[in-house]
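This follows on from our talk about sequence and fold. Please put the record directly below this note.
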Amino acid sequence: MVKDFKRWTTQLAATVLYNGRGAANLLGADMTWKNVCLPGVNCGYCRYAEAGCPWGLTQHTLTGFTLPLGWRVWGLLILCALFLGRMICGWLCPFGWAQELLDKLPMLKLSKNKITYYLSYFKYVVLLLFACDLYFFDLHGLDWRWIIGLLAAAALFIYRPFCRFFCPLGAFYSLFNRIAVFGMQVDSRKCTACQRCVRSCLMDCKRVGDRECIVCGKCRQSCPTEAISLGCKY
């Protein structure tokens, strides 16, 4: 946890920022920015939420609700994706951080394997469904408490199950991972191809910086030759 101090501090700050309306209410301030989205997964309907969730705002747009959104939401997401890729998932997403906290509890863990690798492609199916016109889907009848409860239970045994298998936002950001401005880099002059980086990765990465990389830094910590670094790739 000490090695992840910078990242965890950033995740905590992002969680407070995303849900800062509760503190603002205590101070008597009215801070309602629900028509503005933040790049991570967050429940925009929560009374403490500072701003809206990208997917919630997109659903409102597609189902005809009158929110001044449209391409501004997707413009922001594409801009964030071009700069950070899935680094957003590893550093700025409150829901991802919550799953990491649950993973710290001493339970029997399911290690990544071929099954989890292939399951990681399922989130692209979810992304496709969200990209379709939501007139064809009735999401209002779902009991989200059960879904969140099941995901929380799964997070006790599987590292970031929602991020790896179901998150459409993570699937979207992963499309930009290879070209994102910031990310993990490997110095080929120092790399010995020992594969410790891949073995230490808790996501379903096959190499440093691939589509599943959330820039958690586990690969950098495990590298015996310090060949891996985080920074601007251009």
User: Anything to note?
Assistant: The longest strand covers residues 33-37. Residues 5-29+44-181 form one domain. The chain has a mean pLDDT of 82.
